[in-house]
């Protein structure tokens, strides 16, 4: 099992108000967490007042740009998509009244952002493509035979989008939707009118490189017991013909497997490596990684390290194998953790940690009975920089809540970055920017 390195090292900085020296923790190998955006019902940072982040995962690009779903109250609630760039500031795109954006993903060329637009009745309006300069939006693909089209991911071409679709008969399909072409169904669960080995298809994880991994549950329609066999399938869409292959099976399907089950979501990088939270024969859950054509590695196991409980949120992994995830530690504190490519475990940002904000020193987590700490799944870019969304309160005896903040935790000087490393995925193209506020 991996060893836990030094938890925190101090960084002395000068407080802007009092001038006294303050100690802010920073993760090993990283700079002090930097607050880039703060949404609040009162005064906000780089956002209008009475703004809120949607509880949807954000995108975090190699340039440290943040793309997220948000809402703002201006007599009534308006939802949309925002982009924050240190160079260009805030850009926003508003949706139709009472609609919201879900499942943001980059296009292969990073010229567009894809998301599903969902209306007030819970029905999909289609997968939208928003230009990276926020000047143009178009409906990329739409299939009226499905109620939901979740987890859209453009595949090497901005006109081909992988989606998991929820049918009106409650079955699911994994399909490629193309502009000006019929849907191409890759996998489908059983229904009254269709026989399949799968009872249920869970949301996939996909990469713009043309790869996807999906958890499927074997069985007949309506049979969703945890005792049924689960399997992870890889879908390779890089060639002209999609290829579906089995990656891992649980013990219900393969008696020799050491894995009793899989969480519903994992992580995938451009190389085809996967990371997943799995259940082990000893009753514990663990973070596992499977590199391409290699055996499964158990990286972190509950109660065998400082981690006592993994959360059920998404995890993220970059191409070199850095993994970030949410978990609770042996002190009962919620936080974000990182496992590097060698399998070493590090804390990133935890409940009660002291951070610098535009409102002065603050703490991670809310004051009162609500108990919120982290509001999204953490993200990691190809350089290893980490994005964390957290609730905030002032650092005083009578603490007050000051909203939701996005923190960027930047690596110490990276030789790859200093050497002018090219950015293949998540790059940002030049363009003009606008804000509707």
Task: Report a brief summary of the structure.
The chain has one helix at 415-418; strands spanning 9-14, 21-26, 34-39, 51-53, 59-60, 66-73, 77-85, 89-94, 100-106, 112-118, 124-131, 137-141, 146-155, 157-167, 172-178, 184-188, 198-201, 205-207, 211-218, 230-236, 243-249, 259-268, 274-280, 285-290, 296-301, 307-310, 316-317, 323-329, 334-339, 345-350, 354-357, 360-364, 379-380, 386-394, 401-409. Mean pLDDT is 83; it is low at 1-22 and 419-437. It has 437 residues and is mainly beta.
Which keywords apply here?
437 residues, mainly beta, 35 strands, 1% helix, disordered N terminus, disordered C terminus
Number of strands: 35
Low-confidence stretches: 1-22, 419-437
Q: Quote the average pLDDT.
A: 83
Number of continuous helical runs: 1
Radius of gyration: 22 Å
Major β-sheet profile: 6 strands, antiparallel
Percent range of helical residues: under 10%
- In what range is the share of β-strand residues? over 45%
The chain-level structural class is mainly beta
N- to C-terminal separation?
A: 50 Å
Give the CA-based shape.
globular
């Amino acid at each position: 099992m991996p060893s836990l390195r030094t938890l925190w090292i101090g960084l002395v900085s000068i407080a802007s108000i009092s001038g006294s020296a303050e100690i802010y923790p920073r993760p090993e190998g990283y700079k002090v967490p930097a607050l880039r955006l703060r949404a609040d019902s009162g005064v906000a940072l780089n956002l209008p007042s009475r703004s809120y982040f949607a509880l949807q995962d954000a995108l975090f690009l190699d340039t440290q740009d943040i793309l997220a779903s948000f809402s703002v109250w201006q007599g009534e609630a308006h939802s949309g998509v925002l982009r924050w760039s240190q160079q260009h500031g805030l850009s926003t795109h508003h949706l139709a009244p009472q609609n919201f954006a879900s499942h943001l993903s980059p296009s292969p060329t990073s010229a567009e952002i894809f998301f599903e637009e969902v209306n007030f009745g819970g029905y999909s309006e289609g997968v939208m493509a928003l230009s990276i300069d926020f000047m143009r939006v178009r409906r990329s693909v739409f299939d009226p035979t499905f109620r939901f089209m979740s987890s859209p991911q453009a595949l090497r071409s901005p006109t081909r989008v992988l989606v998991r679709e929820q049918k009106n008969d409650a079955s699911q399909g994994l399909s490629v939707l193309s502009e000006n072409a019929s849907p191409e169904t890759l996998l489908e669960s059983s229904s009254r009118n269709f026989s399949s080995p799968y009872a249920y298809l869970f949301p996939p994880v996909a990469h713009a490189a043309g790869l996807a991994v999906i958890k499927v549950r074997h069985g007949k329609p309506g049979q969703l017991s945890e005792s049924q066999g689960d399997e992870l399938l890889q879908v390779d869409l890089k060639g002209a013909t999609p290829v579906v292959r089995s990656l891992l099976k649980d013990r219900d399907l393969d008696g020799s497997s050491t894995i009793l089950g899989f969480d519903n979501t994992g992580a995938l990088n451009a190389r085809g490596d996967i990371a997943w939270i799995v259940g082990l024969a000893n009753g514990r859950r663990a973070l596992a990684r499977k590199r391409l054509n290699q055996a499964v590695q158990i990286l972190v196991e509950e109660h065998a390290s400082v981690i006592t409980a993994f959360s059920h949120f998404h995890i993220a992994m970059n191409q070199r194998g850095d993994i970030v995830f949410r978990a609770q530690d042996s002190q009962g504190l919620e936080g974000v953790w990182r496992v590097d490519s060698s399998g070493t475990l590090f804390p990133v940002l935890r409940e009660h940690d002291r951070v610098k904000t535009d409102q002065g020193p603050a703490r991670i987590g809310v004051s009162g009975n609500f108990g919120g700490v982290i509001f999204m799944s953490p993200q990691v870019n190809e350089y290893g920089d980490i994005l964390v969304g957290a609730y905030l309160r002032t650092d005083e005896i009578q603490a007050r809540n000051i909203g939701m903040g996005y923190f960027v935790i930047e690596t110490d000087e990276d030789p790859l970055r200093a050497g002018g490393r090219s950015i293949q995925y998540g790059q940002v193209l030049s363009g003009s920017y606008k804000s509707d506020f």
